[in-house]
Amino acid sequence: MEIIKVNKLNKSFGDNHVLNDISFSVNKGDVMAIIGSSGSGKSTLLRCLIDLEKADSGDIIMEGKPLMESGVYTSPQEIRAIIIRMGMVFQHFNLFPHLTVRQNLELAPKVVKKEEPLEMNQRCEAYLNKVGLLDRIDAMPSTLSGGEKQRVAIARALMMNPDILLFDEPTSALDPELTGEVLSVMKNLATEHMTMVVVTHEMSFARDVANKVIFMDSGKILEVGSPKDIFINPKEPRTREFLSSIL
Ligand code: ADP
Ligand code: MG
Questions:
Q1: CA 152 to CA 158: how far, in whole Å?
Q2: Which of 96, 130, 175, 201 has its Cα between 20 and 30 A from that of 15?
Q3: Among 195, 126, 116, which Cα is nearest to 159's?
């Protein structure tokens, strides 16, 4: 089943054409890595998928339901119903600094889903345990390391039971020694068949965990394939150039 289908998506900021006829699909259980230089449009693409940016034309179909079709957005209620099924993890964690770890995890289920406290508490503990941070449940975000903050952000996204998780450079703001703990949580999610789209500069993650890799360059998808296609037999000279600059 297709979780995301994007067809000829375009987006400009003024006369900066940031996404140029982007088309791809993500099936249930896929781990899709998006790689490419800074400024190639990766974040804008993710932001369009969860309606943090409005695209100009094309189709965005989520689990068979159009967010946008032929450049026309569906109703605000429909949009909310669609994006509630998706979780996003940002480079800078975006935890609420004045709330404890538990309160960060329970806020959206409480406000958006009116979830029962007991069930919410149990799931909160289970997800914190999953990311190895149950002992930090009452901590304030400011007392956590970057790697811990990002693991809390992942647990928080899981609290909404998303059908897909989007990650925008989840380890780019971390000290190198803290990236491993975050990547290992993501790898475990992949093992459990969580559908994920991951913008990353961690080529080892893209190579070893993803089953699909997209290389973006100047707002276009220049190449798409399996990790083997992209990392061992890249077709496009630009892909080769990018990989040799980063590996
Ligand atoms: P990437 O994530 O691949 O580094 P971005 O999607 O952040 O790329 O940016 C792509 C282009 O869009 C860049 O030229 C950037 O300056 C521009 N851009 C991104 N967000 C905005 C915005 N809110 N307003 C104007 N220009 C933007
Ligand atoms: Mg970006």
A1: 10
A2: 201
A3: 126
Q: What integer pLDDT is reported at residue 235 of this predicted model?
A: 96
Q: Answer yes or no: is pLDDT of 247 > 90.
A: no
| Ligand 2 ion: residues within 5 Å (CB) | 43
Q: Please tell me the residue having the least CA distance from ligand 1 atom 15.
A: 39
> Closest Cα to residue 128, out of 162, 94, 155?
155
Distance from Cα 130 to the centre of ligand 1, integer Å = 34
Q: Provide the b/e sequence for 154-180 (b: ≥16 CB within 10 Å).
A: bbbbbbbebbbbbbbbbbeebeeebbe
**Mean pLDDT computed over every residue of the chain:** 97
| CA 44 to ligand 1: nearest atom | 6
- Residue range 197-211: average pLDDT? 97
Alpha helices in the chain (DSSP H): 42-49, 76-83, 101-113, 117-130, 146-158, 176-191, 203-208, 227-231, 237-246
150 lines ligand 1 (CB under 6 A): no
Q: Is residue 199 helix, strand or coil?
A: strand
Alpha carbons 92 and 169: distance in angstroms, whole number: 9
Residues 6+ apart with CB under 8 A from 13: none
Whether residue 246 has pLDDT greater than 90: no
* Residues 73-114 pLDDT 10s: 999 999 999 999 999 999 999 999 999 999 999 999 999 999
Q: Classify burial at 206, counting beta carbons within 10 Å of its beta carbon; exposed 0-12, middle 13-18, buried 19 or more.
A: buried
Ligand 2 centroid distance, CA of 1 (Å): 28
